[in-house]
Amino acid sequence: MLFSKAFSDCAVVRLAAVAALAWPLASCAARQVSPVAMTQPTDDRLTCPQIDQEMKSNQATAAELLEKNKEVDQANAAKVVASVVLSGWFALTVDLSHEEQIKMRALADRNEALASLKTNKRCAA
Amino acid sequence: MTSASHPASVASFARRAATGIALLLLAACATPAEPERMAVTQAAGAGFPPKLQHAMCVRNVTGGEATNPLWVSEVDDAGFSEALSSSLDSVGLLGAQGACRYFIDVDLLGLSQPTFGFTFEVTSHANYKVYDAAGKSALLATIAGAYTADFAEAPLGSMRLKRANEGAIRASITQFLDRLRTMK
Fold first, then answer.
1. Three-class DSSP labels, chain B
2. d(CA B93, CA B50)
3. What is the pLDDT along chain A (125 residues), one digit of tens a residue?
4. Domains held by chain A: number
5. Per-domain boundaries in chain B
6. Which of A23, A31, A38 would best serve as a mutation to test chain B binding (most B beta carbons within 10 A)?
7. Distance in Å from the first CA to the final CA of chain A
8. B121 at the A interface (CB within 8 A)?
9. Could you tell me if B72 and B158 are in contact, meaning their C-beta atoms sit under 8 angstroms apart?
10. Model pTM?
11. What is the chain B residue with the closest CA to A23?
């Protein structure tokens, strides 16, 4: 009687532990990334100075993202080494969302589209 | 059991275990996304502007990544280009070499992948740029395509991620074809 109670308690604890472990595993997803679109509905209404301003702002943001992307790459490399040397669990913390890279490339394409818009609007170079 | 047979059985078990681990490691090696699994098949000519039919060519694909077998599955430029060309061909938009009136450049911005999980949801981000023969942009589209691969689709994690990547690219190409249908 005592044995069966201890066994059932143990089973409950095990089930709870498995459920606790499975929950984050089942619900973990990549971060949502929202890159800037190449074209915007309001593009036709942009003036030449506004286009220049947006291009400058995009360049500055892209430079920041480049730095962040380097940091993420370095952190990922360190986590991979730690997962090999210390514990495989470190590999689970590697960031594969590529958020900075995606946003950075999207900004470059947006600036390309803005440059084309500048030409079409005959803005000064 | 004799004392002589015991070490032999341990050695045999160790050999089998090592073989098993080696096979598991090999099975877990990442392979690149397959073009035929990324391609979209739809009814030819379904709702596309006549000017696009047999007039489009894939010119440049950039931003793809080669797959490191020891890391995770990726989509490379050549594989994507093949999948897109095949999709255009299936709907009757692909033009013969030298007879193209519209050129498609694609910038694969990247794949947002999860690190682990029972289900893998991957979102592909890509910029599709369509230019006419004069070099004027006819369509600039930023498209995000998502796909979730579950455990039943591929029990092995590396394969599940690969299937999710392929599905995400399929979703992206499907949306691109939808955008072409509404092109003026």
1. CCCCHHHHHHHHHHHHHHHHHHHHHHHCCCCCCCHHHHCCCCCCCCCCCHHHCCCEEEEEEECCCCCCCCCCCCCCHHHHHHHHHHHHHHCCCECCCCCCCEEEEEEEEEEECCCCCCCEEEEEEEEEEEEECCCCEEEEEEEEEEEEECCCCCCCHHHHHHHHHHHHHHHHHHHHHHHHHCCC
2. 9
3. 555 555 556 666 665 655 555 554 544 566 789 999 999 999 999 999 999 999 999 999 999 999 998 888 888 888 877 777 777 776 777 778 889 999 999 999 999 999 999 999 899 87
4. 2
5. 1-29, 31-181
6. A38
7. 88
8. yes
9. yes
10. 0.79
11. B117
Amino acid at B12: S
Which residues in A lie closer than 8 A to residue B117 (C-beta atoms)?
Answer: 25-29
Asked if the structure places residue A42 within a domain, the reply is no
Q: Class of the B31-181 domain?
A: alpha beta
What is the sign, positive or negative, of the torsion defined by CA atoms of B163, B164, B169, B175? Answer: positive
d(CA A50, CA B141): 22
Q: Which residues of B touch A98 (CB under 8 A)?
A: 110-113
